[in-house]
Amino acid sequence: MLTASQIQELVKGGEGYNVDFKRSVPSKVKEISEEVAAFANAAGGYVLIGVDDDDRIIGAEIDNNKRSAIQDTIGEISPALKCEFYPVNVEGKKVWVVDVPSGKDKPYISGGVIYVREGANCQKLRSAEEIRAFFAECAKIFYDAIPCRWFDIEKDIEPSNFRTFMEMANLSDTLPIRRLFESLELMTEEGIAKNATALFFGREPERKFPHAVIRCLRFKGFDKVHIIDDKTFGGPLYQQYLNALSWIESKLEVEYIIKGTGPREEIWEIPLDVFKESIMNAICHRDLYEEGGTIMVEVYDDRVEISNPGGLLPVVAAEFGHKSMSRNPLIFGLFTRMQVVEKVGSGIPRMRRLMKEAGLPEPKFDTQGFFTVTFMKRTKTVSAIDGTLNGTLNGTLNGTEKLVFECIKATPGITANDLIQQTGKSVRTIRRVVKQLIEMRLIEYIGSKKTGGYFLMSKN
After folding, report:
1. Residue 203 contacts by C-beta under 8 Å, 6 or more apart in sequence?
2. Which of 126, 158, 163, 337 counts the most CB atoms within 10 A of its CB?
3. Helix-strand-coil percent breakdown of the chain, rounded to 5?
4. 0.85 exceeded by pTM
């Protein structure tokens, strides 16, 4: 049974993957059985009656008739599920607890419908196809819920990362770690830490999970030929997230617009907030069973691609951009408690909106095998390529050199033969001009002699 202090800690953290609040018994008591079935189909959890929407304990009185109605509606769940239902006095206010175990005979059905837990929400599987697809995927245990027998919560936790979690989740540090992890469903019934515990709080989880990292690559040009920076970020998942964001920011260009005495406005090649969404999605939704793949962040001259192992679950593909279902619900729930994750299912629409507001093409999604999102950079003006380029074009380059430069700008990767055709100049002239532009560090040749071409010189 939960104690009063445990309930207070759960309420401080807000609703999440393993806890749901009810101000009072709902008029449709069936809502409780739906939440209970969703918890049973996931990792278990608690329905707390007597907690309002502002995360305040207000208490609730439940008479015998309502209590009987709650027990009856839970009793209608199929197959039968044993839950504890009891009151706890919390500083003079009565909070009723429905204590739901993770069911051993999934799926559990309420009112002929299968409900699942996603973040702080209860979602309904609506079609036979969704049901088959979901349980075909989840018949194997969620990777983040597998017992992690090597992890010692007394020795292997990274302290500063743990403190950051407690602060951002608004949790008190007076609660013993083991009890906290038990309330967050991060321990098995036998008291063994789960994979999510090691991945989220461990010092160096990549020691045992070498694929659970983020690799960041900067390529020169528009393809994978020339790598000019290669970083791999391990450590606790939140630190991986922060490090990847910082690395991306260091690889993007920004323009500053200063109006009067007000603060300067930053115009990035790609809005930074889209990376907060896409990297978090990659961490929460990657298929950790695919031990040969990892999250990849790839920066090119014209775009950024972020990919993670595992395409869309069929149940999500049917409503892509509107429905979300994490392959790592415990990890997702921890990020939710830190308020790093936005409302479930909002990530894709938010990325689309941010790109549109910036005047950029909507992100492109490839959902087969790997889930990949591509963000196109802002088209560079001549002045953005080099601070002195406008003056160079206007003062130093002759007419033919300007013409060749503009052809390369308009068609990155253009070949010498195409330059000859587009400009009408001789082979000798084109050779001389491109050599001059290369020496001036305005253009560069990338690729092999047979398949390569000319590009504007990258700042990176």
Report:
1. 156, 157, 158, 235, 236
2. 337
3. 35, 20, 40
4. no
